[in-house]
């Protein structure tokens, strides 16, 4: 048998390693993220590695040497299981940028994410409603506007802790709808 020698290629930093599940067929997703990062950061990134794995794994690690440090750091940028899904491309770019090139402008990728949760929920007094009465589907009462037919067809009142619904001029408990015949 021939004497096998191993050759180790030098690692060029910063290095981004995208580990993806082959069973889940996430190669194209991993390659897409790699392509987007290379298109955005160009030669600022030393290399991108696509690492096949199994078990629903999708992680993005950044190995880099911070500007004012002598030590190389390996940072978890994204973990699908921990984050509850895949990253938006702009979020991934922002996280990478914050580590390797904080001064870099990302253009439209610097705008707030469309999937970011809206934590500013107006209170009842801010939106002009008392918040005490809601119709069957959860919108504030008065959502019917000025249309008396709609207002009469679906109206709610809060009586003794239970909601009732008016159908025409007859009331019925929401859980016990009366049969109505239409001719």
TrEMBL record:
Pfam families: Rdx (PF10262). Residues 97-183 are annotated as: Disordered. The keyword Membrane does not apply. Keywords: Redox-active center. It comes from the Eukaryota. The keyword Cell inner membrane does not apply. PANTHER family: SELENOPROTEIN DOMAIN PROTEIN (AFU_ORTHOLOGUE AFUA_1G05220). This is Selenoprotein W-like protein.
